[in-house]
């Protein structure tokens, strides 16, 4: 940030009194600008045992597969955001179920909140964000063409839980850009 969003003056980058990190501080109006991680909300939508997957029609990762997820909007809950993203990316309406995973991705300053979802009908279709939508069984998931590690891990959690007959809440810290192996994984039974 170079300029104050409150008054337009050039900002200084310094540690404000009582703080511990450098911030963009306006010397004119004294506004402190905090930059915080972005929250991504998504869900694993299911119809008759199959997961709804979307082929990305936008960058990043154009042409690769994901389930619906995107940035949380102001004034909505994470569950509402997950349902909205599902509708926007696949035209599918879902009932949001329990939390499946919270995945921290500090190298891009993001936090993913992934829910289980039940589709209200089998309807789904392409959108400006998805060039293809398809219901897939576990053995049909294109594991090598998954768009993001967060999606890959969430799907693994989902199918492992389903095989065990449980609905755990998983937490994961993805500390590096590359690879599918998590640095830290914990599972909390519900």
Topology:
Elements: E1 12-14, E2 23-25, E3 32-33, E4 38-47, E5 50-56, E6 65-66, E7 69-71, H1 78-90, E8 94-105, E9 110-119, E10 130-136, H2 149-164, E11 169-173, E12 184-188
Parallel strand pairs: 4-9, 8-11
Antiparallel strand pairs: 1-2, 2-3, 4-5, 4-7, 5-6, 5-10, 8-9, 11-12
Verbal overview:
With 190 residues, this protein is α+β, with helices and mostly antiparallel strands. It folds into two domains: 35 residues, Ubiquitin Ligase Nedd4, Chain: W; 151 residues, Nucleoside Triphosphate Pyrophosphohydrolase (Alpha-Beta Complex), CATH 3.90.79.10. 15% of the residues lie in helices and 36% in strands. The chain has two helices and twelve strands, in the order E-E-E-E-E-E-E-H-E-E-E-H-E-E. The strands form two sheets. Strands 4, 5, 6, 7, 8, 9, 10, 11 and 12 form a nine-stranded mixed sheet that branches. Strand 8 and strand 9 form a beta hairpin.
Secondary structure: helix percent: 10-25%
Distance between the termini: 42 Å
Q: CATH top level of the largest domain? A: Alpha Beta
CATH architecture of the largest domain: Alpha-Beta Complex
Let me know the number of strands.
12
Which regions contain 5 or more consecutive residues with pLDDT less than 50? 181-186
Q: At the third CATH level, what is the topology name of the largest domain?
A: Nucleoside Triphosphate Pyrophosphohydrolase
CATH homology superfamily of the largest domain: Nucleoside Triphosphate Pyrophosphohydrolase
Given helix and strand content, the structural type is alpha+beta
Beta-strand percentage range = 35-45%
| Gyration radius from CA atoms, angstroms | 19 Å
Major sheet characteristics:
9 strands, mixed
Note the overall shape: elongated
Number of domains: 2
Report the mean per-residue pLDDT as an integer.
94
DSSP summary: helix tally = 2
Order of helices and strands: EEEEEEEHEEEHEE
């Amino acid at each position: 940030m170079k300029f104050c969003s409150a008054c337009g003056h050039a900002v200084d980058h310094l540690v404000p009194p009582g703080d511990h990190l450098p911030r963009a501080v306006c010397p004119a109006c004294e506004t402190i600008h905090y930059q915080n991680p972005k929250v991504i909300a998504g869900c694993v939508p299911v119809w008759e045992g199959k997961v709804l997957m979307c082929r990305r029609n936008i960058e990043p990762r154009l042409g690769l597969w994901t389930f619906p997820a995107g940035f949380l909007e102001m004034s909505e809950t994470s569950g509402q955001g997950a349902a909205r993203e599902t509708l926007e990316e696949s035209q599918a309406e879902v009932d949001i179920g329990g939390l499946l995973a919270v995945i921290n991705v500090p190298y891009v300053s993001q936090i993913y909140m992934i829910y289980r979802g039940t589709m209200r009908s089998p309807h789904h279709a392409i959108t400006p964000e998805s060039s293809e939508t398809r219901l897939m069984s576990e053995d049909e998931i294109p594991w090598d063409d998954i768009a993001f590690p967060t999606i890959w891990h969430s799907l693994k959690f989902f199918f492992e839980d389903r095989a065990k007959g449980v609905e755990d809440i998983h937490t994961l810290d993805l500390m590096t850009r590359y690879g599918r192996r998590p640095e830290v994984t914990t599972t909390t039974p519900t």
